[in-house]
Specification:
2 copies of one chain form a homodimer. By secondary structure, chain A is an alpha/beta fold. Chain A folds into 3 domains: 70 residues, dopa decarboxylase, N-terminal domain (Up-down Bundle); 261 residues, Aspartate Aminotransferase, domain 2 (3-Layer(aba) Sandwich), CATH 3.40.640; 119 residues, Aspartate Aminotransferase, domain 1 (Alpha-Beta Complex). Helix content of chain A is 42%, strand content 11%. Chain A has 16 helices and 11 strands. In chain A, the strands form 2 sheets. Chain A has a 7-stranded mixed beta sheet with strand order 1-7-6-5-4-2-3, with helices on both faces. A 4-stranded antiparallel beta sheet of chain A has the order 8-9-11-10. In chain A, helix 9 links the parallel strand 4 and strand 5. In chain A, helix 1 packs parallel to helix 3, helix 8 packs parallel to helix 9 and helix 15 packs across helix 16. The N terminus of chain A is likely disordered. Chains A and B meet through helix 1, helix 2, helix 3, helix 4 and helix 5 of A and helix 1, helix 2, helix 3, helix 4 and helix 5 of B. Chains A, B: This is Aromatic-L-amino-acid decarboxylase.
Amino acid sequence: MGSLDTNPTAFSAFGDDASAGFQPLNPDDVRSYLHKAVDFISDYYKSVESLPVLPDVKPGYLRNELSSAPPTSSAPFDVTMKELRASVVPGMTHWASPNFFAFFPSTNSAAAIAGDLIASAMNTVGFTWQAAPAATEMEVLALDWLAQLLRLPSSFMNRTGAAGRGTGGGVILGTTSEAMLVTLVAARDAALRRSGSQGVSGLPRLAVYAADQTHSTFFKACRLAGFDPANIRSIPTGPETDYALDPARLLEVMQADVDAGLVPTYVCATVGTTSSNAVDPVGAIADVAAVFNAWVHVDAAYAGSACICPEFRHHLDGVERVDSISMSPHKWLLTCLDCTCLWVRDTHRLTDSLETNPEYLKNDASESGNVTDLKDMQVGVGRRFRGLKLWMVMRTYGAAKLQEHIRSDVAMAKMFEDSVRSDDRFEVVVPRNFALVCFRIKPHGGGMTEEDADEANRELMECLNRTGKAYLAHTVVDDRFVLRFAVGSSLQEERHVRSAWELINKTTTEIMQDKIVAAVE
Amino acid sequence: MGSLDTNPTAFSAFGDDASAGFQPLNPDDVRSYLHKAVDFISDYYKSVESLPVLPDVKPGYLRNELSSAPPTSSAPFDVTMKELRASVVPGMTHWASPNFFAFFPSTNSAAAIAGDLIASAMNTVGFTWQAAPAATEMEVLALDWLAQLLRLPSSFMNRTGAAGRGTGGGVILGTTSEAMLVTLVAARDAALRRSGSQGVSGLPRLAVYAADQTHSTFFKACRLAGFDPANIRSIPTGPETDYALDPARLLEVMQADVDAGLVPTYVCATVGTTSSNAVDPVGAIADVAAVFNAWVHVDAAYAGSACICPEFRHHLDGVERVDSISMSPHKWLLTCLDCTCLWVRDTHRLTDSLETNPEYLKNDASESGNVTDLKDMQVGVGRRFRGLKLWMVMRTYGAAKLQEHIRSDVAMAKMFEDSVRSDDRFEVVVPRNFALVCFRIKPHGGGMTEEDADEANRELMECLNRTGKAYLAHTVVDDRFVLRFAVGSSLQEERHVRSAWELINKTTTEIMQDKIVAAVE
């Protein structure tokens, strides 16, 4: 046997200079690069307030700043950092800016960033329990903790103790879209089985439902899962329900589909729509869906975080009767991207559709049935250790601080709302449920039409965003152009909201003055 | 008008103690928490070599170590870090360990971790160009750089300069599975349109193809996209092609499906299968697929990274004739999770299926058609700034160091392979293409059967993994239990490979000795 010990000199891959090789995790480099990154972040957070929120760059700008071809040789890390500062930062839309009021904020915290950093360094891939026991169990624990903060029924919680697995459980995914997709697929497959479909032959008969205010990504997820575009129902809403889904209307639409030979399969209810923060009535929707044995998913991506406060929890009333719920701590629970939590009442309904069992991943723990293999609850196999940052946020700040964070944002939004309401030129378009204020310049003064107001609002938004001192996005509610003012960027303080209101006030005065001058001329 | 200026005292959300509020990004905390995290990482990398690679913990262990309920009050960050060290680290499977030889390594580097850290802190959400111009353009640039390193045809590259968008382009996703899913959906929709299907009525007639060695996640992605399980073809392979897909066999299967009235839609070719690193012949497969107008995707998740070296590039020959290719720098290009690069020859075929256009995301840049909105090339809407870490890796290390990294891993694998080959007790089961060695104890000595050898190999793997000094996974090739020895963990040096071989050598001697004793008794 020519074992190694008998011929050690032949056993070298590199010859004599092996020790001089490239070490991508050289300890000095790791420490030095990360300290430089921390310095950058520290400087960035200090200066971001003074940077234009929305950059003034043209498409393709970066290609003119950086080399169009990759370098052959290595460079000192300082060169990389210099290019980051000189070329990348000036082209960023600064989501971390306290003057960012667009979309929903991507909130963040020191604990979350530290947790994410450690996850990047450990770089574990927790597809099975065995491949990362602590990462899997930390994710399970973090989800159970958050479920408790949200007062979700225990039927949604993981059970991996001595009693073995129950049917409830959760998983951390990258986006709400993935949560929708995996539950849609589970509901689809269950409906096909129930209807005795051969393979997917019954797919053209399945129908899915959501309010027209539901995020566009839901309708996309339905198409990804193969639902027939003709059977994806976008149910109209209106001011009579503050743009929430009307259960009576849902019942009519589902019954009509049954009468036409279709199979109602899935209903998506939203708690806090992206457009205007409408809240679909979860319990009433669950009752309607139960008539048809359809899966009900609750998308609480943004507003779910608020439900850790008792005063907002009622928005989830009825959740004990739905099949799944998702919310994204990367939106409003101080946990940096990406982190979407999905809980389901019966994980077997997910794993029936999503389980894989290749030889190279087989192991005793999985075969014992006593562990959760999280790959079987998501689209892919690989996965970051996302549970760490979420746990670190809850462990470090505790429930009280997290509630304080929500309440502070809501209080600032209410303050802004009060200012809008106290100014006759504006109207608040829909009731403010959380920390988003939907408002607009309303027709005022002589002869100003709704169309004139739309134009003024569009002009106001563009003027505000061009200043670099604030960034607001818009929506359309009831055919009217509406400004969305979303409070909550994690560096935001009351003074930033105050300044934004002053800027809106002043800019509106200028716009209206210009319009009067133009009309007179 | 009750503007703010006229009534400033009323404009406070919190009253007098506003300044005492909770600041999740307090500058002192950010710096302090991140420095503690860097210290942890530094210590971790120094000590991980001596930690058991595979932990000795039982399912549910973490719940016994940590509180089962979230804390109400905040705690010093040191408490969080202490629990991390005391309870989480001992339950980790250490992918960063230099003694990790399982699966494929998740390689990493100082530059990547720093880039990922900065991305976490900036926390930008680049769904549209306007929402993050620099993040979008950095991703486009990084993909073009990597395409150049891989010598992909320019038809796969992004074009966002003055000439406007071409048809080629790429996107960074979380996993290969997502790359498969979005291209499957694009191919599915195109096939349905071509076949004149009403909605998805034609879906049960579409068929998809891959070798039986293709990753299980491909077959799962097909089911997610709604393909009929009966039409998902897993084509047998064997030793005559070293477990690569035989184009002649593919042609037969596709033709038989056409003859049976099915519509061949998509073929997945793998460059470097997970089980044994087989390489499907890309060009020949593209030629077969072209006969049927089927989409061809190349999954080069692991081995794609090697193709930055001229001596491995031939494995991608013919790629200019495929529709899409994906590879994961988080596997073998020193970029921490998650980072999967997907390039497609015609991005419109992706965006036709994946585009959304809700009112609240509309903006002038998107409407100009001169920018890439990356949400339209992925499942979800939200997305991390993943391009930064990938660019930082290429910018800092340069092509030469990255090639050195690949060659060093391959040289160590070859060294290991040579040791195996020089020992009569073992056999190398398939040719080693990259840095994975598939080997096993072969029947040797008096009367040892193949089944005995399978049992000995299983025992060898379990013994090795129980020592904590090495972690290997297995596969099954041609019905034989085979050990996979994957070189490349980023802290790995030649001495670790040497130690692992010595351990394998010694453990095998012990196992065989025990068997002889048992036989004699």
